[in-house]
Model the fold of this input.
Amino acid sequence: MTLDNKPLDEIGLKAWLLAVAPKSPAQARCQRAYLAWRSFRSNPIGMIGLCIVSGLIIVAVLAPILTSGTGLEPNLGNRLQPFSWDHWFGTDQLGRDIYDRIVWGSRITLYIVGLVSIIVVPIGLAIGTVAGYLGGWVDNFLMRITDIFLAFPRLILALALVAALGSGIENAVLAIALTTWSPYARIARAEVLSIRKAEFILAAQSQGASSARILLRHVVPMCLPSIIVRLTLDMAGIILTAAGLGFLGLGAQPPLPEWGAMISTGRQFLLDQWWVPTVPGIAIFVVSLGFCLLGDGLRDTLDPKASDR
Amino acid sequence: MQLTKTVAARTFASLSSQLRVLSSVAVTLLLTFIGLTSVTFTIGRVMPADPVLAVIGDRAPQAAYDRVYKEMGLDRPIYEQYYRYLGELSRGDLGTSIMTSQPVLEDIKRFFPATLELSTIATLIGVLLGVPMGVLAAVNQGRLLDHFVRIFGLIGYSVPVFWLGMVGLLVFYGKLDWVAGPGRIDVYYDGIVETVTGFILIDAAIAGEWDIFHNAVSHLILPSILLGSFALAYIARMTRSFMLDQLNQEYILTARVKGASETSVIWRHAFRNVLVQLITIVGLTYASLLEGSVLTETVFSWPGIGQYITTSLFNADMNAVLGGTVVVGICFVGINMLSDLLYKTVDPRARS
Done:
């Protein structure tokens, strides 16, 4: 009896994960994930990014514990205080604790980023995979539309859209999503073209699987790694656009502690109370940088071909 | 005889392939313009609950409402309205701005040069510094300079430009007083120089008003360095990656084996093959700076098209917003397509 065939509790987790011949599809999947993690772990840049991004998520989840208030109630007796033990990042023009607002604002940032992703990825995947798999005039038609959206000026179009729909987080998200999905369709299509003639697709086809099943069960999973890498790298751009819209007064509305809007309202205090608009800017920078670094690391792990760029 | 025939045949083949590229780009360009205008059309005429109210306000009498409704062609089918919209656009009729009560096109003519001036100088900074930086990073791959370029690029992708502009103003204008503050020129110089090109630097130089020229430079320097460093980060990163592609190829090895000097290998062999790709990148950067200037202009109170669009937006001046969007959009798409076209016609590698 070889080592590979022993049950998990006899050989230990690590050996199970590194077994030469996995016994079940589940084990194979765990092994692949483990190997990817090992390669990712040795990448310092990616690890820093992972720390920042998971830090953001933890802060957002634990916001009620980490703060003493909601960061929304004004306290005019306490305006524009500098850094102190009571107010780590000082207070703003309405006497609200900036630390509290930054912590609660992390939820808004995650909300925006998450919402954009769940709109953009399915649209891009659907259009890209269908175009690539079916080919012919469908491909031509869908890719023309993608090209048109790819060539659009993103920020200005988002501005015009928000102008028509009215300001607010949801409309900002919609505007960003509408101008962001096209590269995902391109990526998905390229991936599909490279595997369309692969043997496992042929096998599924000859077993009588429908196009929908092949696309969903076999093609989409193959596209996911490159889509995820691109999404992570795009996150910084999404955060910056959302913050920019907030800064212009078109995104989240006061008193919501959205970081871009905080910079905008704190702008008039720049000369004398520099921390009011500066701290939210640093928060935006750190979080965007985190996503950039994580994306870089993921790309090195999942897509080594492109890692030179 | 044989020789000239093959040369002629080859020229003809290359010409026809260039024509094919040209026509495919033209089709894409046309489709993109149709897409762009249908989006702005949708935003302007279809999305608002009632476009008439947006023009005459909600206290106008019913008769006036009906008249405007007819005038705007809202009783016609949607495709006819769109066709009419295209007609107006092609005549340069972007409607009248509510805010300035002038034709939107006139407003844009007044504001656009400021944006052009800023983004042109920013692009120049980005190219003049970014290209050598990218080349040096590629040559010194994995060494200190390379890491520096990489980190600089990452920061460029993560810093909010409006925030950096604010901090820049605080430090260099507020604290150190090295540069002039927001705006394009000091108020007391405003309107002295006759507008010839719309570029203050050129106009001041033509008029020989060197005080004004200096003042304008002092206003321009901070925003253009700021925008320029974003351009620089992108250009340097792309230059590096293009150069690495070339330096790993065999003809470079051949050149080295033949005893070509390192400078000649880098600049005469590798860099020359990167040039066309680089021009495309510079085109893209220029287009995105034109578009991305909205935020910078807000921070620096720069009287350009970005600020025009945002202030119109807050005054619910939809004609101005959409007019600005269409003009910037057309420039953006045009520059993108031009650089694409250039790449495809000049570089034989992109034609296959």
